[in-house]
Amino acid sequence: MSTHSTHSEQIESETGKLGMWIFLLTELFLFGGLFLVYAVFRAQYSEDFHTAGRELNTFIGTLNTVFLLVSSMTVAMAITAVQKDKKNLAIFLIVITLILAGLFMMNKYFEWSHKFEFKIYPGSEVLKNMPRGELLFFGLYFMMTGLHAIHVLIGMILLTINIFKIKKGGVGSKHYLHLENTGLYWHLVDLIWIFLFPLLYLIT
Amino acid sequence: MKNGETHISSFTSHAIVLIVLLTLTFISVFVTGWHLGAFSVTVALAIASVKVATVVLNFMHVRHESLFIKLMISGVFVLYALVIIITFIDYHLR
């Protein structure tokens, strides 16, 4: 009987993870489409993209990259902690992840409000009067970082749910698919940022 | 998970992966700071690709997944590369 339940649990874990991966790959194409648009317009308006890209603060971008990379590690560690049945450590690591995600969002908030101060936001007069390439750059910047930020927020909600699941026993050393899939989602958020960072902040 | 055995990654290995990722980040910030045009773009994107592969293989545990999942993921990445290549071929031949 016990071997039977272990077997079905294993199948559940395999299929659950497979389903998550299929979803993540569709997410990849959601952002992939935007990356493609970026690539084509960058090739077409390289001078304008160069000028507009210099408006972004590399330091803030780098800092946010560090926050997300460290948070990816803490999530991966939280899974290890749960597997080793160290519940309190796992919760602690998820809380650290949430703090890092919060810092990322705070930076994003300051960055966007700084742009808004200069009347740079989708649909603004200043933006409309910019050269076409710069308009496209900022349009893509707001769209891509905005869509990414929504993913960060969803990830934060999922992580919080996991804290309660660990506390109530829904996630434990024997069944941690929920945390594993949340981890996969969180790493996807990180993966997208790994490409957004050089494309928007570094290559000017 | 492979053959019913769960692989538990150690805390140390996660920390090492993070150090690698941070080092790569600082290298790409440093190199693009020289403003070498096409060279900077190539280096930045190459480093980003290495970082993505590092995250996928280690943090996302794909290294220990079944062959099916490995093939599915790499297949989609190849598909996306083809989408980019075909778009640019189309764009240049217009």
Short description:
The complex is a heterodimer of chains A (204) and B (94). With 204 residues, chain A is mainly α.
Number of domains of chain B: 1
Question: Per the principal axes of the C-alpha atoms, what is the gross shape of chain B?
Answer: flat
Helix amount of chain A:
over 70%
Model regions low in confidence, pLDDT < 50 over at least 5 residues of chain A: none
pLDDT average of chain A, as an integer?
A: 92
**What does the largest sheet of chain B look like?**
none
Distance between the termini of chain A: 62 Å
Secondary-structure element sequence of chain B? Answer: HHH
The helix count of chain A comes to 7
Distance between the termini of chain B: 48 Å
Structural class of chain A: mainly alpha
Oligomeric state of shown chains: heterodimer
The tally of helices of chain B reads 3
From the 3D coordinates, which CATH architecture of chain A would you assign?
Up-down Bundle
Strand content of chain A: under 5%
Radius of gyration of chain B: 17 Å
Total number of domains of chain A: 1
Principal-axis shape of chain A equals elongated
CATH superfamily of chain A: Cytochrome c oxidase, subunit III, four-helix bundle
Can you put this structure into words, describing what you see?
The complex is a heterodimer of chains A (204) and B (94). Chain A is an all-alpha fold. Chain A is built from seven helices and no strands. Chain A starts with a helix and ends with a helix. The model of chain A has no long low-confidence stretch (mean pLDDT 92). With 94 residues, chain B is mainly α. Chain B has helices at 11-32, 38-59, 67-93. The chains are: A mainly alpha (204), B mainly alpha (94). The A-B interface holds A 6-7, 10, 13-14, 17-18, 21-22, 25, 28-29, 32, 36, 39-40, 43, 58, 62, 65-66, 69-70, 72-73, 75-77, 79-80, 83-84, 183-184, 187, 190-191, 194-195, 197-198, 202-204 and B 1, 4, 6, 8-11, 14-15, 17-18, 21-22, 25, 28-29, 32, 35, 40-41, 44-45, 47-48, 51-52, 55-56, 58-60, 65-66, 68-69, 72-73, 76, 80, 83-84, 87-88, 91.
